[in-house]
Amino acid sequence: MTIETTTLNPQVIFVSATTPSDTTEGKMWYNTSDNSLYVSNGTNYITMSTDLTSIQTLIQENALNILVNSAGASTTLNDWTRWF
Q: Where are the domains positioned within the chain?
């Protein structure tokens, strides 16, 4: 029995509203304008039919976490202990 292995490029999923120029076979693209997932056949990106609700939710949660972390990094916490 032969097991085939493939090393994946570290960036295998693109997230954008426009088609990526990199059409390396097996790379995936999540189209944010139509909420669809595509996979490259080496030449073009072909639509994958699946429910992408969980992917969209994760993208939105990550964006919110980045916003919260950015806001937290740019402000200082109040030192309430000095008032008591």
A: 8-50
List the structure tokens of 1.
Answer: 């029995």
Q: Which two tokens stand for residue 39?
A: 């996979």
Phi, psi of 38 (to 5 degrees): -125, 155
In b/e form, how buried is each residue of 33-68, taking b as 16+ CB within 10 angstroms?
eeeebbbbeeeebeeeeeebeeeeeeeeeeeeeeee
CA angle 31, 59, 56 (to 5 degrees): 60
Q: Tell me if the pTM is above 0.85.
A: no
Model confidence at 43, in pLDDT bands (50, 70, 90)? very high
Q: Going by DSSP bridges, is the β-strand pair 45-48/36-40 parallel, antiparallel, or unpaired?
A: antiparallel
CB 29 within 8 A of CB 16: yes
